[in-house]
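Lecture 7, part B: from sequences to assemblies.

Below are the input chains for today's worked example.
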Amino acid sequence: MSDLTRLSAAALAEALTSGEVSSVEATQAHLDRIAAVDGPVHAFLHVSSDEALATARGVDEARAKGESLHPLAGVPIAVKDVVVTRGLPTTAGSRILEGWIPPYDATLVTKIKAARLPILGKTNMDEFAMGSSTEHSGYGNTHNPWDLDRIPGGSGGGSAAAVAAYEAPLAIGTDTGGSIRQPAAVTGTVGVKPTYGSVSRYGLIALASSLDQAGPVTRTVLDAALLHELIAGHDPHDSTSLTDPVGDYVAQARRGLAGDVAGMRVGVVKELSGEGYQPGVLARFEESLELLRQAGAEIVEVSCPHFEYALAAYYLILPAEASSNLAKFDGMRYGLRVEPTEGPVTAERVMAATRGQGFGDEVKRRIILGTYALSAGYYDAYYGSAQKVRTLIQRDFAAAFEEADVLVSPTAPTTAFKLGEKLDDPLAMYLNDVATIPANLAGVPGMSVPSGLCEDGLPAGFQVIAPARQDARLYRVGAAVEALLEARWGGPILTKAPELEASK
Amino acid sequence: MSTPWRDEVARVAGLARIDLKPDELDRLAGELEVIVQSVARVSEVATPDVPATSHPLPLTNVFRADEPETPLDRDEVLAMAPAQEDGKFLVPQILGEDA
Amino acid sequence: MSDTLVDYDDAVARYDTVFGIEVHVELGTRTKMFDAAEQGFGADPNTQVTPVSLGLPGALPAVNGTAVEYAIRIGLALNCTIAESCRFARKNYFYPDVPKNFQTSQYDEPIAHDGWVDVELEDGTVFRVDIERAHMEEDAGKNTHVGGATGRIHGAIYSLVDYNRAGVPLVEIVTRPVTGAGERAPEVARAYVQTLRDMFRALEVSEARMERGNVRADVNVSLRPSSDSPLGTRTETKNVNSFRSIERAVRYEISRQAAVLDAGGQIVQETRHWHEDTGHTTSGRIKSDAEDYRYFPEPDLVPIVPDRAWIEEIRANLPELPAARRRRLQADWGYADPEMRDVVNAGAVELIELTVAAGSSPAAARKWWMGELARTAKERGVELEELPVTPQQIGALQALVDDGRLTDKLARQVLEGVLAGEGDPEAVVAARGLEVVSDDGPLLAAIDQALAAQPDVVAKIQGGNLGPVGAIIGAVMKATRGQADAARVRELVLERVQS
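Predicted structure of the full complex, as C-alpha cells:
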C-alpha cells in the first residue's frame, strides 16, 4: 500500500478490517511521519510511540484471533494536551503543569482506549486553551503546514496541524469559543464542536465550564462522524452530560456525501459577514452556498441581532469561569511550585509566586479580567449582564432555527495570519472567534469544513451550525459541501498544500 | 506609577494570588482598561426583564447514587506532589488563621 | 493580652444580648457531596480521595442524591420551606486545604429557608429560635501544622494536608438573630445546638458526634443598650465544638464586649477564636472588604428542583423528632414533669426506653438510671451512656428483683459486679452466690442458732414484746451474708417462738 498517512480514517479502518494493513504498520507510518515533519510543524508536545505501538500490536493480535473490534480499532489518534491521559504527560500547554502525569483518564480517553485506538501523543495548544493562534503555548509555537510562517489557529493548533500534516488521521480537540473550528478553517481540515453535553467534559482541563466541549478534528466529514460517535454519550461523571442516545452521524454524513440536501433550509446569518471579513473568505463562502443551492437546498437569510454582543459576553463569561477553574493551579498538590525570591516562605506567597511564574501572559490577562468581573460591586454589570446576553443570543438562535434547519457563515474572518502579527493586540486576536463564539454561548453544535483557497493561497472554512441536539444535521450538510467542493477541485483541499520537507 | 487601573490590577492580582512584576502591572493596567471598556457594552442590552442563562442547556436534578468508587492510588498521587510526608501533602507554613 | 471583663450579671443587667449561630453538620452518607470517594472517620490519610476530592485538573463534581435528601430532611425538621429551585455556587478563596481553591456551596439559593425550632431549657422553658436558612456545601481537608512550639499555625514551619475530609457533605444551618433571651442567652445557645444534635441523630442524617467534629458551631454575639436599640456590631467566634464551650463562649463574649463598650470603645467586627483550655476568645482575622469571595453559579452543576411529591414522601417518612418523642414517652411512662426533665437533662431518655423495652417497669427503670447509676456516673466523671452496663442488663436485673430472686440490696451488689465487668446479672448472681435464700431449711437453722444464742429475746417475744425480733433478723441476715429475705425471716422467727 502507498503512504498510509494519506488515507482518511475511514479508509484506513477499512484497510485494517480487511487485513490489508496492520495497525502496527499504520501506527509506525504515522510515527515516522511525525519524526519527519514535526520538527518544523511542532504539533506534538509529547509523542507516545511505545504506548501507541503496544496498543497497535494488541489490535493486530486481537484481529488475528478473530475478536470483534470497534470499527476504528487500530486507527491512530492524537489527543489535545488539555485532555487528561493516565500515564502520559498532560500540561494543557502550560509550564505550571510541566511534568504532570495524571493518575486517571478523561472519559473520552477511556472510550478511545476501550475502542483500542493507538494514541500517538499529545498536541500543542494555547496555554489552557486561551488563544486563537497557539502562540500562547508555554512550549513554543505550532506552525501551519500550509505556510510555516503562519499560525495554525488556536487554541487547538496542534491537533489541526497534526491532521493537516498527515501526522495523524484523527485528533481530539476542544472548543470553548472556536478552538476546534477556527484551526480547522485555517489549516484546511474538518472540525466539529458538538452540542454542549454531547461529549463528556470529565477529564478535560476546564477553561470555561459552561462553554467547553470536546470534538473531532479530522480531514473528512465522515471521519469526524466516526470519531464523534465514538466519544459521545452520557457520562454520570459530568452533570451537564446529555442522556440523549448518540445520533446517527455516520449515516447522515454518507447521506450528505451522496449530495442529499434537497429541501434543507440553509440560513445565512446576516451578522456574520461583511466588515472585517477577508474578501477571499467571503467569496469562498458564497461559492459553497451556491453549490448547496444547486444541490436543492433552500437558502434563506436570517438575522441574529444580538450576535454583535457575543464577543463581549464571551470575554466576560470565559475569564470569569476560567479565573475560578484555574485557581487550583497553586503549587500545593501537583505541578510547579515556586518559592518567593525574598521574604517568608508561606503557602500564600508560594501560591502567588508559582502562579506568577507558571502562567503566561494571556492566562494572567484573562484571570485578571475574570477576577475583576466577578469581584464585589462589578458582578451585576459584567458577569450578570453577560449571562443575560447569553439569553438574548439563545433567543436569536431559536428564532433563526424557526426559519432554517441549519445556519451557515464563514468560520473565521480571515485566513491564517503571520506568527506574531496579532500577539500585542489582544482585542484584534479575540476577533478571530467572532463567528464561532455564538454557538458556544448557546450550546449549539457547529462544524467547519474547508471552503477553498483564498487570494493568498491559504484555506478558509465554511461553518455550519445546527440546533442543540441536532448534530446529525451538521454531518449531512457538511458532507454535502465537502463532496460538492471536492468534485469541483478534483480532490481534497489538502492535496493542494505544499509538501513539507522531511527532516530525516 | 500609580494609576486607578494599575491599582485595580494590583488589587485583583492579590485576589487571584498572582505575583506580577512592575512591568506586567503597567501593561495589564492598560490592557484591562481597554478590554473592560470594550466588554462593558453587554450592559446596553442586559435589561432587567432579560433572565440570566448560566447553563447552555437547561437540565435539572442530576444526582449521583451514594455508592463509592475505587479511590486513587495514594502513592501515584503523592508521586506528583511537589512535596510530601507521611502520606500527606507537604505545604509551606500557613499564615493568617490563628493568633 | 488579656481582656478586661465585666461581671456577667452586671453586663446582662445593662446590655441586651443578640446572638446567632451557624451550625455545620457532616452528613453520614457513604460517599462525599460531589464525588464518589468513600467518607468516614479514621481512614489513613489521603486514601479516601478521587480526582474530584483532590481538585485534580479535569475532575468534575456530581451531586450525591442521598445528601440532598438528608438536607431536605433537616430542612423539614426545622420547619423550613424547601426551595422550589436552588443551586450551587462557587465561593472563591485560596487555602491549601481547599483543593480547588473554591468551595462549592449554596449562596443566594439555599435548599431550605425560613423555619424555626423550639428549644427546651433545663428548667422546662421553651424558647423558639428562628432559622434563616439551611444549605448544602462541602467540607475542607485537614491541615496538621508541623514544627511550631504550640501546634498552632503561627510558629509552624510547614503543614501537612490530608484531603480525606475534603468534599464531605455539610449542611450549614443559620439562625436569624436570636433576641429576647436576656441573661439566659448562653444557656439558649447551648440548648439550641444540643437540640440540633439530637435532631440530627433522630433524623439519621449524621452520627453527630461533637468530639469528632461532626457538628461544629460558629457563634455570633453582639450587645446593645436595650432591646429597642439597633443591633450592635457582632463578633463571630469560630469552631466552638462542645455544648459547654458554646455556653462559655457566649458568656465570655458578653462580659468582654460589655467591658469594651463600658470603656467607650467600639466592637470590632471580626472572627474570634475560642480557647477551650483557658475559656477565653482571642481576635482572629478582621473582616473587611478584602474578603471578596466572587460567588457565581457553579457551571459544572445543574439546578436542583426538588419534586414536590418527593418532598412530601420525605416528610411522611420523617422519624419522630426528639421533642415529640419526649412528650410521647412521658405520657407512656407516667412521669411527672420534673421527673421527665431530670431524665432528659441526664441524657437518660433512650437508656430508660431501652430498659423498659427489656421488661422493666418505667418507675424501676428511672429508679436505676437516675439513682444508683447516676451516682456511679458522677463518681466516675462520665456520662450515663458511657457506663459499662447496657439497658438490657438493667432490665434483666430488675426482672430478678421482680421475681423475688434478689432483694434491692442484693440487686445493687449484682449491679456492682456488672459494672466491674463480671458479666450479665445472672452470671454475677451465680459467680458471687448472691441469690436470695428462699429455702426455709438453711434459714431455720440460722434462726435456731440465733435464738439459742439469745434466750432472753425469746422470752421477751413470747411475752408479747416484738421489738427484739429485729435483733434476731439482723443476726440471721448476718449469718446468711444478706441473702435472706428479711420479711420471710421475720415470719419464720415468729412461727418458731410462738409455736
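Note for the exam: Chain B touches chain C through 35 residues (CB under 8 Å). Keep this in mind when comparing with the next example.
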